[in-house]
Write a structure and sequence with these properties.
Length: 339
């Protein structure tokens, strides 16, 4: 008996694309109607050392004939489930199931960057944040192998500091969210690509915009952007505050925790996990960094106080992973010298 070509019994099995974002093994099951090489281009930043291990996470990916176009997608969260719906996408990920399903239009294949930003990254992060990669609302910069985590709510100055650090020649870890791993050791992860600034901070109308945390922001590409994720094994936590002039003072771990609550929408889904991550970052104490309207002045204060920050850094080592650090003993030291 001959089966029709569209009979499930004759369909080719899904192909696989093994990846390891933030060093968590991931398998993308690719339907036969999809060009696996073009999909791989959209996922190229998801390499990692855990590739080849049994996958902890799975995303199934298919082309759907009833979808057309791209963009204008809506992300909704209901209980443990997150859905993405738009003219060119229909996707769902459920926290705890370690699996997501995704259908996209062929138009998305011509826009790998848009597919990564609008479809794949939200699905992946929904799964990763339940795999000991806890999101903390913070920017991060790396100086001499120490990740300085700058935590605070929306509008507190995180992205402005990240942009100032990038302009000074430092490696940015993230402009808005860092991911904290606590086992088997402390590591902080980021995907630096751009700084996202509110219109009041951007002072520029000639750049692309993107909606983040429900707010439209200008996108400033970073010179220290990385194709893949980067991480550090030692970090120090600074909680951001506002003041007339930059100031840095030590605070207890409990005070740092209090300053970061209540959590912003989205982050409030993981209070226990974020609490554990903040506790790990502040195990040897934390700092309050007061910001004025001049982020460069606050950055200068951080760099001049690096020896103080180092004494409260938590973690097992000073070596940053997957990147070459800028020469902080020359260019950065020169930048912070008195003028």
């Amino acid at each position: 008996m001959h089966r029709p070509m569209n009979d499930p019994a004759t369909a080719a099995p899904p192909r696989s694309l093994p990846l390891a974002p933030l060093d968590v093994s991931l398998n993308i099951e690719v339907g036969r109607a999809l060009d696996i090489e073009r999909l791989a281009n959209a996922c190229r930043q998801w390499a990692g050392s855990d590739i080849g291990h049994p996958p902890r996470l799975t995303i199934s990916f298919e082309i759907a004939a009833d979808l057309a176009g791209r963009g204008d997608s809506r992300i909704a969260v209901c209980g443990a489930a997150m859905t993405i719906d738009g003219p060119g996408v229909r996707a769902r990920a459920v926290a705890g199931e370690k699996r997501a399903t995704c259908f996209v239009s062929r138009d998305y294949l011509d826009d790998p960057g848009g597919m990564a930003d609008e479809v794949l990254e939200p699905l992946l992060l929904r799964l990763l944040t339940r795999e000991d990669r806890t999101p903390v609302h913070a920017s991060g910069i790396i100086v001499d192998g120490l990740a300085i985590i700058l935590a605070g709510p929306s509008g507190s100055g995180k992205s402005c500091l990240a942009r100032a650090a990038d302009a000074a020649g430092l490696q940015v870890l993230s402009d808005d969210v860092v991911y904290v791993q606590t086992s088997p050791e402390l590591r902080v992860w980021g995907w630096p690509s751009a700084a996202h600034l509110l219109p009041a901070d951007a002072r520029c109308g000639n750049l692309a915009t993107r909606v983040r945390n429900g707010k439209r922001k200008y996108v400033f590409p970073l010179r220290s952007a990385s194709v893949g994720a980067i991480s550090c094994r030692q970090a120090v936590l600074c909680v951001l505050a506002r003041g007339r002039q930059p100031a840095l003072k030590p605070i207890a771990a409990g005070e740092a925790m209090r300053r970061l609550w209540p959590l912003d929408p989205g982050f409030d889904e993981l209070p226990r996990e974020i609490g554990a991550a903040v506790e790990a970052l502040s195990a040897r104490g934390a700092w309050e960094l007061s910001l004025s309207d001049n982020p460069e002045a606050a950055l200068r204060l951080l760099l001049e106080s690096l020896h103080r920050l180092e004494r409260t850094g938590c973690g097992s080592g000073r070596q940053a992973q997957k990147l070459t650090l800028p020469p902080a003993t020359s260019a950065v030291r020169e930048w912070v010298s008195p003028r």
